[in-house]
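Deliverable D2.4 — example input (structure tokens):
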């Protein structure tokens, strides 16, 4: 017991001095451990949890989790493994390593602005994703078709415009005053 107290006082406790080489939260008084308590890799097993829920950012104190910073969306790849996270400081985005390449988490979608056509003629939203990062209304409708809601299939579909009458603009009169005219 005296040697343990000396080791603690000298900050000389390490995994070599622990029987199974591990320290769990229950091994630490008050269930706390600081960054100074960890010198190399911190390894978690199945069922372990990093709980940052008490971090509330209600002050200007530095707290939370900071990811490794990289200067591009394609930094050097790890020699093995997957699931690595990093923060791309040049692109202001979080990226992850999927085992073969780095990819953006989430990402943005912009409106499609080209005039190309597709064969898509129906969708639940009436929209289609183009090039994985652009969105557009369905563009597979032929001339004289428009998007209509199909309540049975619960989808937007390209369909002919039927059910209406007439074409062009009619002349409308109220009393003897002309309201609108055209054709």
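Example output (designed residues):
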């Amino acid at each position: 017991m005296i040697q343990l107290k000396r080791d603690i006082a000298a900050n000389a406790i390490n995994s070599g001095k622990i029987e199974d080489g591990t320290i769990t939260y229950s091994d630490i008084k008050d269930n706390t451990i600081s960054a100074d308590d960890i010198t190399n890799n911190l390894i978690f097993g199945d069922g372990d949890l990093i709980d940052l829920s008490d971090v509330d950012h209600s002050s200007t104190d530095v707290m939370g989790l900071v990811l490794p910073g990289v200067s591009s969306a394609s930094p050097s790849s790890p020699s093995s493994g997957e699931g690595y996270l990093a923060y791309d400081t040049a692109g202001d985005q979080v990226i992850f390593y999927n085992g073969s390449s780095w990819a953006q988490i989430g990402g943005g979608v912009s409106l499609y602005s080209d005039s190309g056509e597709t064969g898509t003629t129906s969708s639940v939203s009436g929209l289609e994703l183009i090039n994985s990062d652009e969105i557009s209304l369905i563009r597979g409708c032929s001339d004289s078709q428009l998007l209509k809601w199909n309540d049975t299939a619960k989808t937007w579909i390209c369909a002919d415009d039927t059910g209406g009458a007439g074409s062009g603009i009619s002349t409308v009169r109220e009393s003897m005053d002309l309201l609108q005219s055209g054709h």
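Helices lie at 2-9.
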